[in-house]
Structures are given as structure tokens and as C-alpha cells.
Amino acid sequence: SYVLTQPPSVSVAPGKTARITCGGNNIGSKSVHWYQQKPGQAPVLVIYYDSDRPSGIPERFSGSNSGNTATLTISRVEAGDEADYYCQVWDSSSDHPVVFGGGTKLTVL
Amino acid sequence: QVQLVQSGAEVKKPGASVKVSCKVSGYTLTELSMHWVRQAPGKGLEWMGGFDPEDGETIYAQKFQGRVTMTEDTSTDTAYMELSSLRSEDTAVYYCATPQEYSGSYYDYWGQGTLVTVSS
Hints:
The complex is a heterodimer. Chain A is mainly β.
């Protein structure tokens, strides 16, 4: 099945920009979705279809997808953004259509 | 707005089965495509299976085939996930999740999670 690769951890100072990558073979041809998960809570959708934001998600969250890498960008990082972030794709051609990346722990220094 | 409310934590012995429920409100179950995702302690999200509206069938991750059964009771708008032959590695939080759009490819809504502990 399709494999998504994320860095285990990313650290950023408050007010700076965090970039979390999600690598996959020709991932630019797929739609990528991103979830934020804080300890003890269910995941929350923060980006869908590469770059769309659900209502209620701050504009500081943005996404892009091209080639073999999708990126979640968090601008003006706040302490409350510290969480695990997961990318996800739906590979309709596969018998295992839903694939998650391994997750990235975002630490706000 | 969809709300998904799951059943409470379970403790099971190895070899037993567990059945987790997910009660839908705000929509009817027939309007949704319910999926199940689990998360072992300290680990990432793992898709177990769900309803594929293109085929009209429930599909399971190969890893769980033969051990997992996902069913729905439309009279009560409740989805169920039953996992059998439990082993310690099945200790995890189990989530139901659904797109808002019937054929959506991402999960707008998640249940609160159900912790299943497998221990002798």
C-alpha cells in the first residue's frame, strides 16, 4: 500500500513559522489532508484537499502539495499549536485506500 | 453538525472479543460513511476499515481481515466495530470517524475514542 513519510519531530520558537512535510511517491497527484491531535484528544481536521481550511481553523494554517512532498505550514506559531500532526491520503486505486503518515510532534520552544 | 459518541473503555483478556459502538446524532447513519481508526499508546493513527460508497461495501485493512467486523444499526443510528482474537498488541484507543460528505476522502468528524486494554 501507499506509504507516507513524516519527520518524527519539528521544533519552532513562538512567532516563527513551522513547516511539516509529508513525503510520498508522486503525492502531488493525490489530495492530502492534515489533522492536529493534542494529548488525550481525538484528531481534528486542519487542512483538506491540500490547502483548504475547515471553518474555525485559523488562517495561520496553510498547506501545499507538489511532486513528492506535501507541506503543512503554521505561521506565527503559538504555544497552543503544540501537538501531533498527521497527513492522510485516500488512494482509491488501492485495497487499502486510507493511509496516514506516521505523525510529527510539533514542539514550541 | 454530526456528533459521534462512543461506548466506554473496555478491558479484555487475550483471545476474547470486543465490540465498540459509535452513536450518531445530527445526521442519520445512512447519510454517512463510517470508518474506524485506532491508535496504540504512543503510536500513530492506523486505519482499520470503513464503508466505501463507491462499491457500497465495507472494506477492511488487510491486517485486520478475518478478525474485524464493522456493522451498522440504522434503526438506532449506531455503528459497531467488533475485533476478535484479541492480543496485547490490540491495546489501543479506537475511534469512529466519518466524512461529512458521503463520498468524502477525509474525516470531518471523530468520536471521542474508546480505550481497549488487552491484558491477562
